[in-house]
Amino acid sequence: MGRIMTITNHLEEVPQMMSFVEDFCTDAGLDEMTILGLTLAMEEAVVNVVNYAYPEGTTGEIEMEVSSDDKALTFILRDRGKPFDPTTAKEVDITLSAEERNIGGLGIHLIRNYMDVVKYEYCDGQNVLTLIKNKET
Fold first, then answer.
1. Disulfide check for 44: which of 12, 102, 104, 107 has CB 3.0–4.6 Å away?
2. Strand locations in 10-136, DSSP E?
3. pLDDT for residue 92
4. 136: which DSSP letter?
5. Distance CA 53, CA 73 (A)
6. With DSSP H G I counted as helix, E B as strand and the rest as coil, what are the percentages for the chain, rounded to 5?
7. How far apart are CA 99 and CA 60, in angstroms?
8. Alpha-carbon distances, residue 127 vs 32, 77, 112 (angstroms)
9. Angle of CA points 136, 24, 29, to nearest 5°
């Protein structure tokens, strides 16, 4: 089972993509807490692309491909914005207070900690972020 959705890099389109993720996860038979976690992780990934991939004032596309098998759910985000590899981003020190911490990075932290696989490649002028969540056995 697989689906694809494309939006532009406008924040008002993000809820539409999150509904797409939620519907996909529901159809895959996931429980409510898992759906909530996946939706939050995917929202962080999509909002990062919306906010940072394309120069301000330009419009670009963000494609999400979702698929599922017996073992895992796979989410692939593609965009033609500036290259950014979230797998090389510095870990956030969550032991520090909010005042001591640098701004940003919590979204990537959440994605890394919720997803089982986070893989990035820049291929044919595209950022390709693959996020995999293993199904509970």
1. 107
2. 61-68, 72-79, 117-123, 126-134
3. 47
4. P
5. 25
6. 35, 30, 35
7. 34
8. 30, 8, 17
9. 40
Q: What is the DSSP letter of 21?
A: H
Please list, in sequence order, all residues whose beta carbon lies within 8 angstroms of the beta carbon of residue 33, skipping any fewer than 6 positions away.
Answer: none
CA separation for the pair 24, 111 (Å, rounded): 18
State the Cα–Cα distance between residues 124 and 36, nearest whole angstrom: 33
What does the alpha-carbon distance between residue 39 and residue 51 come to, in Å, rounded to a whole number? Answer: 18
Q: Which residues does residue 78 pair with via DSSP β-bridges, in sequence order?
A: 63, 128
pLDDT at 108 (0 to 100)? 77
Q: Over its length of 137 residues, how does the chain's per-residue pLDDT go in tens digits?
A: 589 999 999 999 999 999 999 999 999 999 999 999 999 999 999 998 998 899 989 999 999 999 999 999 999 999 999 998 877 755 544 454 444 544 444 567 788 888 999 999 999 999 999 999 998 74
